[in-house]
Amino acid sequence: MTQPAPLTRPQLERLWRWERNMIRYYAMAMTLIAAVAAVAVAYGDIPWVRRSMLALILLLVLAATIVQFRERCPRCGRRIGSQSRLLLPDKCKGCGVKFERPPKLDSELDN
Questions:
Q1: 16 vs 4, 24, 91, 96, CA distance in Å?
Q2: Helices then strands (H, E): number in the chain?
């Protein structure tokens, strides 16, 4: 089986952007969960606070699901989120195209 042609720079940049967004989302989610836990300790006996926290957690899970499974392989269209959690896999499990790592640090790519 021959190796598929490498992805173009714009295709790779889109995948790298998705990966950075996944990492940022994870960091925000963990911060929000810690804040909700602190509120639960302080005000967990109030029913509307408990319901609000539950609704917030459910929204967080829904948003995480949407972000995770939104991106697809540029070649075959297979969802990347089902192949790897949070980070970009080394290659697509569907078509085998390699997902190269960015040549520079993420902060340098944003500029």
A1: 19, 12, 13, 17
A2: 3, 0
Domain ranges of the chain: 9-101
CB atoms within 10 A of CB 88: 20
pLDDT of residue 10: 92
With beta carbons less than 8 A apart as the criterion, state whether 40 and 53 touch: yes
Give the whole-angstrom CA distance, residue 63 versus residue 30: 13
Reduced to 3 states (helix: H, G, I; strand: E, B; else coil), residue 102 is coil
Catalogue the E-assigned strands of the chain.
none
Mean pLDDT of the region 35-47 = 85
85's CB contacts (< 8 A; 6+ apart) are 68
Q: Which residue has the higher pLDDT, 109 or 82?
A: 82
Do the Cβ atoms of 7 and 74 come closer than 8 Å? yes
